[in-house]
Amino acid sequence: MKPAGVDDATWQKAQEACASVRPTGGAGRGQGTNPAYANCLSDHGVLAGTTPDSSDPKVSAALEACKAVSPAPS
After folding, report:
1. CA–CA separation, 16 vs 57, rounded Å?
2. Which of 4, 24, 47, 56 is 20 to 30 A from 10, comparing alpha carbons?
């Protein structure tokens, strides 16, 4: 969504310039998690769209590593 006060040409140029760092998964995906959190979990081997099993040591480590960008209160 384009911010107020930004013209279409500037917005398009920004979208193209930032394409390489755009969050994966698209809008509305990730079961309500923010894109940074979903990407962090994915980077640590937790598959997007799954419910993390905190009893799994790999998942537990990913949850800890991504705590700073977690949308849930810690």
Report:
1. 38
2. 24
